[in-house]
Design goal:
Blueprint (H helix, E strand, L loop, with lengths): L3 E4 L20 H14 L9 E13 L4 E13 L8 H11 L3 E4 L5 E4 H10 L7 H20 E10 L5 E10 L1 H20 L5 H12 L5 E4 L2 E7 L2 H4 L7 H12 L3 E5 L2 E6 L7 E6 L11 H7 L8 H9 L8
Helix pairs in contact: 1-5, 4-5, 5-6
């Protein structure tokens, strides 16, 4: 099966779902707050059935001069979480939508997923101006990010193959142009989303925490060379609980740090970074922080419906994709 191109709408404006986010056992307040903010950004629509994967390898190359970001994704050990023996109907439907070029996942499905049809729905939903000035500013920020991503993001679905343990795997190629404009618009959207969310908080302490985060001039997202940085308001006591009661999340975070990522708490915020500013390419493989462990319930369906490619090398595919940053004006 050759690569199939598809235009994505926007990873900061409409993504779905956060299938296993419930496994991240932070406090009820912060889970609810994070979910609300992700919804404000267009990042979260919870669905009952999800295709998961045991590990994911992301290899990316950011060229500041071309203002382009190439990302090669390899999903290792695809499986369904609903049933031990086979994929559920919902999982089969989700896989079918992925193969039609509508969706791509980033790090373990519980963080976020891009959904093209969701983007289209969101464009319709946010078309009407808001009477509230704060909400209207947020709507405009969403619209701006959507427009940029529609024009600048493309995802190509690759092939299914088996790893050396006979588990089904898959790949995708992602190309993002005008990265600096997208990041700038994404930061503006995050700021507007936090401003809207702050108005809904009952606790003075919670409002103060979020207000302090908004007062900092630094961007919420940044990409310098290959270094990705992110900050988000989070109380120290909640930061200390991350992974405390969740072995998979604890393992995920430990691997992230072992592989060069940083995770810290500063000024009432969680700060996350990965990659090096002076490198030309980065690769990271992280375990799934999902609901269940790998089970061999997807191979038969994938083989019967989509076929499995023999003698396929995902590293070679990544190298071919990343060997040349495309010209900005192509």
């Amino acid at each position: 099966m050759a690569y199939e191109s598809v235009r994505l709408r926007c990873p900061l404006v409409n993504c779905a779902p956060l299938c296993a986010l419930g496994s991240v056992r932070i406090s009820k307040y912060y889970f609810a707050m994070l979910k609300r903010i992700l919804l404000l950004l267009g990042l979260a629509v919870l669905l009952p059935g999800c295709i998961e994967f045991e590990r994911q390898t992301v290899t990316y190359e950011h060229d500041p001069k071309a203002d382009t970001l190439l990302i090669h994704q390899a999903y290792h050990g695809l499986y369904g979480a609903d049933d031990v023996t086979q994929l559920s109907q919902q999982e089969r439907e989700q896989l079918a939508s992925v193969m039609k070029g509508q969706r791509t996942f980033f790090f373990a499905n519980w963080i976020f997923e891009l959904n093209v049809e969701g983007f289209k729905n969101q464009l319709t939903e946010i078309a009407t101006p808001k009477s509230n000035s704060l909400e209207e500013a947020h709507r405009r920020a969403q619209t701006n990010v959507l427009a940029l991503l529609v024009a600048n993001v493309r995802v190509e679905n690759g092939k299914f193959y088996l790893d050396d343990q006979g588990r089904p795997c898959g790949t995708q190629r992602v190309t993002i142009r005008n990265v600096s404009k997208i990041i700038e618009a994404g930061n503006a959207l995050m700021r507007r989303a936090l401003e809207v969310e702050m108005k809904k908080l009952d606790s003075a302490a919670e409002r103060a925490l979020m207000n302090e985060s908004l007062a900092h001039p630094e961007p919420f997202f940044s990409l310098t060379g290959q270094q990705v940085r992110f900050r988000f308001p989070l109380a120290k006591e909640e930061y200390d609980k991350l992974g405390q009661d969740d072995e998979k999340l604890r393992h995920f975070l430990a691997e992230f740090v072992r592989l060069g990522g940083t995770l810290s708490h500063e000024r009432g915020e969680i700060h996350v970074s990965f990659g090096r500013s002076n490198e030309v390419r980065e690769t990271v493989t992280l375990p799934m922080a999902g609901k269940e462990s790998y089970r061999p319930n997807a191979l038969m369906h994938i083989r019967d419906i989509y076929s499995v490619t023999k003698e396929y090398d995902p590293k070679k595919d990544a190298e071919e994709f990343l060997k040349a940053i495309p010209a900005k004006d192509k």
